[in-house]
Amino acid sequence: MKQRKTIETAILFGLICAILLSVSRFSAVCDDLRGNVLRLHILANSDSEEDQAVKLLVRNRLLEETGALFEQQTDLSAAEKIAGKNLQRFCDIAGQVLSENGFSYGVSASLEDAFFETRVYDDFTLPAGTYRSLTIRLGNAAGKNWWCVVFPAVCIPAAQSAQLSDSVSAVSAEVAEHPSGYVLRFKTVEWYEKVKYQLLHLKNKNLLD
Length: 209
Prior knowledge:
By secondary structure, the protein is α+β, with helices and mostly antiparallel strands. It has one domain (about 30-200). It is built from 7 helices and 6 strands; from the N terminus they run αβααααβββββαα.
């Protein structure tokens, strides 16, 4: 009986180690994705039908008039520099769209680290976690948001050939573009990243207090 328990314990330990190793490898893939893309994040003033509609008009104009800025960038750092230099331009374009449609609330734009849950786009899925984000806030920014990836320029209409593999490893691109085989791992990473983000937020809050 004692020998049997020893064997069972060894098997259980082996399974736990295998799971941890698998999660660790997948976490590295997720880090590669999070660390090599720049997301565009547009937050609507509210969830009213009118505010949500104008958010999409802002999106269309921004992609149309500024998408070319990101098409030729070769790494995240270069894309961030371009975005940072054009923050006022993003605000001006968004503000013009709002004004044309009778909205008087303001616009702000920033480059920041933002937490996202696991998000499914047309052709790929990005794991939960903290990403560099070009964030456009319309008015109170209290409504549902819209997001895409501007580096690599996969959500820019003119950049038809852009792919995630332009900035991340082939393994990472494969995971993002074929997520059906990694559903459980995506959920595990999402749980872990949420806990990590909440603990970091609590720590920062305590430091400020």
